[in-house]
Automatic annotation (TrEMBL):
Domain of life, source organism: Bacteria
Lineage: Bacteria, Bacillati, Actinomycetota, Actinomycetes, Kitasatosporales
Name the UniProt record assigns to this protein: Transcriptional regulator
Gene3D superfamilies: Tetratricopeptide repeat domain
Annotated spans, Disordered: 94-149
InterPro entries the UniProt entry points to: TPR-like_helical_dom_sf (IPR011990)
Comp. bias (Basic and acidic residues): 121-136
């Protein structure tokens, strides 16, 4: 497909060039891709694309790039970035044209609207399944947006304007209503209404993750997070409201970070956790700081940085001391145990596990944070199973994983799938392939309700371990079902 040829030479975008500064086009493109990941977008920006923008060949970017650019340069408009108004670059043919035009169709559009220098499809990136250049119509929906176009329009309006005008995140399919994170009216600053809605958005995201896993939630949850921080920028009048907004935004950052973590986006998760930690440090919120360090420790363990996991868990315990929650300290001791297990330090792991069990036995209290509702006996058993698994003690790991699966409340569908996947892997490595296959089939039956890259990756590892045991009872059936099941990349 060929792009439209303007009657006059394109005018260079000097404003955009100034924003690039001393960075090379390739370095700037890398920053664009990183910014896209921060907000859940996927763009295939490279030096060639940056050059086309600066040369004026792309007078107005598609919505994906618009969201990314305005995230990179908050407070600026497309005009500030050197782009033309969208209304000046779109024509009737562009609005009604199909997404992909070839041959005479492309020539007709080019001939009919010589001045429409919006971002055209670009064959240079045709191999990229998330290619933003495939959008022919800059006014049409981005091809990977939710098909609910009304929702997409709200998202575009809501999270690109910034400041006190940020509107709600229309996340209907996720159970988050249009008032999930409402913005204050121009006539007043955020108040208790906005703080309450923000806290409710955090609860709903956690509830949906418990039931369905992270994969389908992550990109949608990034939008209310941006709205939350825009509310902070708008500023509240009462100090109590300011504190609630900061805590709510920090907790939301952690929730979004967990969705990134559970769906295998470790770099994104690390960024969100760091954002929450910075918010906690700015406001002196010890509970939020402990939570951020808790999740950072878990992420570091999964990312293969066990020493960092130990340090983060210990930092979380220091932050949690004034809070007086034995359950919180029990969970933090488990995070430390996971780090010691990753370092193959059996003694350090056993000591941390014993401390976690003793603290857990003291029971719940009013000091326990709300976000710890997931932490019960099943989670204790499940995390201990993971520790013994990392240490290679498969019989002990499988016993704890079985207890975790048996004890879990049916409400937590994702956790039942997780513990059962852990059990299947431990049994397979212990040399009990028939029982492992049975557990694996149970996990597959839950994957219709749960979307978690983490669980699918675990199950793929179990399948590899069971391959040599195909003749064992039930193993062939599990392997065939697993092979037929659609899996995430890399699983």
């Amino acid at each position: 497909m060929t792009s439209s040829q303007p009657e006059r030479p394109p005018r260079p975008n000097l404003a955009f060039r100034r924003l690039r500064g001393r960075r090379s086009p390739a370095e700037f493109a890398a920053l664009v891709r990183r910014a896209a990941r921060e907000i859940g977008e996927r763009v295939s920006c490279d030096a060639r694309y940056v050059g086309r923008v600066e040369a004026g060949e792309i007078r107005c970017p598609n919505y994906a790039y618009e969201r990314v650019f305005l995230h990179m340069f908050p407070g600026r408009t497309l005009a500030d970035l050197g782009f033309a108004p969208r209304s000046s670059v779109r024509g009737r043919a562009a609005r009604t044209a199909p997404r992909a035009l070839t041959g005479a169709g492309a020539q007709e559009v080019a001939a009919g609207h010589p001045g429409d220098a919006f971002e055209p499809p670009d064959q240079h990136h045709s191999h990229d399944p998330y290619d933003p250049h495939e959008v022919c119509d800059p006014e049409g929906p981005y091809p990977y947006d939710h098909p609910n176009h009304e929702e997409s329009d709200v998202l575009r309006r809501a999270f690109m304007t910034g400041g006190a005008t940020v509107a709600a995140a229309a996340l209907g399919p996720l159970g988050l209503t249009q008032d999930a994170v409402p913005a204050p009216r121009r006539s007043r600053r955020p108040g208790s209404t906005e703080a309450t809605a923000l806290e409710e958005a955090v609860r709903r995201i956690r509830l949906l993750d418990d039931r369905h896993g992270a994969d389908g939630l992550y990109r949608r949850a990034a939008a209310p997070l941006r709205a939350a921080y825009a509310l902070l920028d708008a500023g509240a009048t009462r100090q109590a409201t300011v504190e609630r907004l900061h805590t709510g935004a920090g907790e939301l950052a952690i929730s979004v970070g967990w969705l990134a973590h559970d769906s295998g986006r470790f770099d994104d998760a690390r960024s969100h956790y760091a954002e929450a930690l910075a918010t906690a440090r700015m406001t002196g919120d010890e509970g939020l700081e402990a939570h951020a360090f808790c999740n950072t420790a878990f992420l570091a363990r999964d990312a293969g940085r066990p020493r960092e996991a130990v340090r983060a868990a210990q930092a979380a315990q220091r932050a949690a001391r004034p809070l007086g929650s034995d359950r919180l300290n029990s969970l933090l001791a488990l995070r430390e145990a996971g780090g010691w297990a990753g370092l193959a330090d059996r003694t350090g792991c056993a000591r941390a596990l014993a401390r976690a069990q003793a603290l857990f036995a003291r029971g719940r209290s009013a000091a326990d944070p709300e976000w710890m509702s997931f932490y019960g006996e099943a989670e204790l058993e499940g995390l201990e199973a993971q520790c013994w698994s990392m240490l290679g003690d498969w019989p002990r790991a499988s016993r704890h994983a079985q207890r975790a699966a048996d004890l879990q409340d049916p409400h937590f569908t994702r956790n039942i799938a997780l513990y059962t996947a852990e059990l299947a892997d431990d049994l397979a490595r212990e040399g009990r392939p028939d029982e492992a296959a049975q557990a694996g089939v149970r996990v597959l039956s839950l994957l219709g309700q749960v979307q978690s890259s983490r669980i699918q990756t675990m199950l793929a590892g179990t399948a590899r371990v069971l391959l040599p045991h195909r003749r064992a009872s039930g193993v062939s059936d599990f392997l065939d079902r697993h092979k037929a099941y659609p899996r995430v990349a890399g699983a």
